[in-house]
Amino acid sequence: FAVDEYNTSTGTIRTGEPVALRGHDTVELARGLSVTDGQARFSHVHDGVAYYFAGEATKDAFASNPAAYLPQYGGFCAFGVAVGKKLDANPRFADIVDGKLYVFLNAVAFGKYQEDKAGTLAKAKKKWPAMHHVAVSTVNSR
What we know:
Number of strands: 6
Strand order of the largest sheet: 1-2
Strand content: 15-25%
Shape: globular
Largest sheet: 2 strands, antiparallel
Order of helices and strands: EEHEEHHEEHHH
Helix content: 25-40%
């Protein structure tokens, strides 16, 4: 995968892939905003990134259809993308809109998003293509 296309933690699994969503189960999050710790023994690598799951059922659901459960914008903060930055995201601040999972940096970013959900997501959608393959350090130094 290209540099910084996905928001990953500093940890890696034993085969070297970085861990996404701070090790939380993305299926549980995408299905109902349940922040559930994943476990390394239930990991699945997709596009060079490791995702942890709470059990075999959510791991299998993800493996059969990753696109249904992946957070938008590579797991970077959707509000950050809307303002042109690749910011970390905390799964505790998340929303599902039209079946898509969005994650946010913190309560402040999430609050700003809630003030204008449609506008924020429209801005993020417009900006993401130019940011997608650009390193975090480059995007955030602009």
